[in-house]
Amino acid sequence: MRQPEASTRYGIVRGTEEEGVVIWRGIPFAAPPVGELRFAAPRPPSSWEGIRDASSFGPVSLQPPDTRGTRFRGQQPVFSEDCLHLNIWSPAEEDESLPVMVWIHGGTFLTGSGSQPMFDGSVLASESRVVVVSVNYRLGPLGFLHLSPLGDGFVSNAGLLDQVAALEWVQGNIAAFGGDPKRVTVFGESAGSMSVAALLAMPSARGLFARAIMQSGASQALPPEAGSAIAAALLAELGLDRSSASQLRSLPAESILSAAFAVAQRLTGDSPGMVFQPVVDPATLPEEPILAVSGGSAAGVPLLIGTNSHEGHYFFREGTPVPPMEKSLRALEQTLGLSDLSALAPYYSEDWEGQAGMMTDLFFWRSSVAFAESYLGHGPVWMYRFDWGVEDHTLLSKAVHTAEIPYVFGNMDFLRTLGIQVTPELQSLSDAMRSAWTAFAYSGNPDCPALLWPEYETDERATLIFDESPAVVKDPESEKRKMIF
To answer: pTM of the entire structure?
Structure first.
């Protein structure tokens, strides 16, 4: 039996047992990144005496408000710079050491938290016999401002360094919670998936995990020149320059966020784009992830990667403002680091559906296929596509961005909060995805008796399509793939 009390290198924590799962919430994996540690690399947490209560989630990273009310589903989390906490779900009826799945949340590097209801790890832990960990990391300008050229202890990619610190904590402490540090799978969606791509490229992350899963996001990093220009614009917005940059550590965080969002609005307008994101930086992310993995930076680490069939319909919806096609193309070119996409414009209508399709194909699918191809030869790769839609649902009638997450986690209760009836077909699909993901966590191969899944190679491009009846398809939509490449 797993006990609610566990000993870490920093002290004892007491969690709670809930329906066969022991849950520890809000464990600090690094010191609060405040004061002199703002914009600095994460430091180890302080030790404590006695038993630390771990029954409640810790604060989440400062971020824009949840205007849709979907991020925390009515909960009222505390927002704070002191956000570097993680959460653990471990099956109570277990004594043996189990594989560990470390979840990195998405949110365009601006929003989100490991404590969002969608990411509840209870079902994964209890029914699939794994230890689930979710982490927070610094977001927006506090986590992704290119400041290392300033020296004086400033770093770039602080949010990625937070993720590395969390993985280091897992390596040093997870055995006390029933996890096997030699079988750690890092998985994430959207910006979390892009984070996984970066971790596969970062020298400091090497050896901290054994397998990787990337859901709806691939290689993403600004060139250093662009990162420096954004940092300079933010300093100017705050009335600072290089010589007075040290004041960044003492300014109210709200002032920094307000200035950052003003800069982002000027740079992107009404077009989709990420101003605050990973940046190529010699000390932390020496190469774009796709170039690093093509050179073997993650050699030997199995990779599972895929996208949803209607990613873009999450961002473009009927009745919402649609930017001119030329502006959307420029935003995609800047985001993807491509010189000219204008030849593809005639294949997409200029209305919201056309632009949604263009985002799905170019930003998500194309990038994931390119990353998978770059990875081949250095480790085994499996490719999937999620196609399932819930008929007549206002958002999930198509397989939009984020739609696969509750199925992977087996989180049917979350789907019910969205007004979805959990049918046997829906439950069966979730069981199939959960079985494949956890088989991968156990062995580095998602193939399982109920779901045969061949590796992805460029000759056949075997892709597992998750729909009402999951099936392997060779080179799905091959003509479109050839067009967008």
So the answer is: 0.95
